[in-house]
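#lab-general

N.A. 3:47 PM
ok so I finally got the sequence cleaned up, no stray characters, all 93 residues accounted for. can someone with queue access submit it? mine expired

B.Y. 3:52 PM
send it over

N.A. 3:53 PM
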Amino acid sequence: MSEFWRERRDAKLAKILDPDEAAWLVAEEIIPEKELVIFSVVHRWPFSGWATRQFSYDTVSNVFHFRGSTLLADGDLVKMKAEQRIYAHHTVE
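B.Y. 4:20 PM
back already:
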């Protein structure tokens, strides 16, 4: 499984994230034998507030699958690490 999938995944992710809000990629599990990536993003979502949302990404078909979410309190945001912050959603043209 090449790293090409990461660019494709990030381009799709950029379409669902609000470019005016911070976002963090807090978990990523690569499953090469299934050509699948499971990952979690912390972001402020419309109507629900701050949450961790889990997704799976099929690298072959270039498709996201939503796996669930967990709401976060504002105080949980201080636990986010700077190196987990993602900026890809700011590059949408």
